[in-house]
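Thread: Newbie trying to understand structure tokens

Hi all, I'm a second-year student working on a class project, and my supervisor (Dr. K.) asked me to get a predicted structure for one chain before our next meeting. I've only ever worked with sequences, so writing a 3D structure as a token string is new to me. If someone could post the tokens and maybe explain what I'm looking at, I'd be very grateful. Here's the chain:
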Amino acid sequence: MQAWRVHRNGEPSEVMELEEADRPTPGNGQVLLKVRAANINFPDALLCRGQYQVRPPLPFTPGVEICGETEDGRRVLATPALPDGGFAEYVVADEAALLPAPDALDDAEAAALHIGYQTGWFGLHRRARLQAGETLLVHAAAGGVGSAAVQLGKAAGATVIGVVGGPEKAAIARELGCDLVIDRRSEDIVAVVKEATGGRGADVVYDPVGGDAYAKSVKCIAFEGRVVVVGFASGTIPTPGLNHALVKNYSIVGLHWGLYNTKDPAAVRACHDELTKLAAQGVIKPLISERVPMADTARAVQRVADGTSTGRIVVLPSGGTR
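---
Reply by user tm_fold:
Sure, no problem. This is what the structure looks like when written as tokens:
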């Protein structure tokens, strides 16, 4: 089979190589899946760089989520077992963790439903307890993780303010349903949020960026607000001033969605059922900006790494969509 392999750490476009490889062999409790679509996530870039919290042995294949096909023809969502990730024609995955692909979504959309939307749902509902009528501030609102949070926030009845970089991404954020869009390159995030909320600030902040995004967020957080720390796409990990959290009475909550797979797998399945219902109702639908062939995978991962992509870029190993 064909698979993208990383033999040394570095930038994705420099270290990812398309090679012929043996099909992975399932172990106990695992199944072999044909990859129908593999969604590109920022962690795939971090894996290439050797900066992810999981460091598989070299060489490895990146690709942390797929829509695959079982030997009996079922479409399923899976997180492949590293070091044999999803940028390949076949993967193995834990059978107990497989989730049925929603009928309302094609392969590319289904591949992008899993990690980003589960992260958004757990972040907004389990960690931040977002309520209808509250104001949700979403950073990188036109990106893969942010776009999921925007849709889920609207589905929960929140007023959603999206932060983006540049007019093209601002247009996409508006199409996603943001009630207000802030272009961080030309507007003052803190001033706009305070004006839009009558001085109150955002009740919930969804932050996959870190760095300056976090610093601005805590300057416009509401009384009893919650900042959900999802990731650090900016490359800068904030160092929160806990005295500031104390005097302004807000919470900083972390979210590592992967832990729920081991700590509370039943909650992951219940979340998937809810996401499937929302997809069937047309309330959520992953924003797929590009469907790329296998040969273009490394260049696509690099665009995600560089932050120049919008929505989700999905790899279609066989060139199909269903």
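A couple of things are worth pointing out once you decode it. The chain has a mean pLDDT of 95. The CA atoms of residues 141 and 274 lie 22 Å apart. Feel free to ask follow-ups in this thread.
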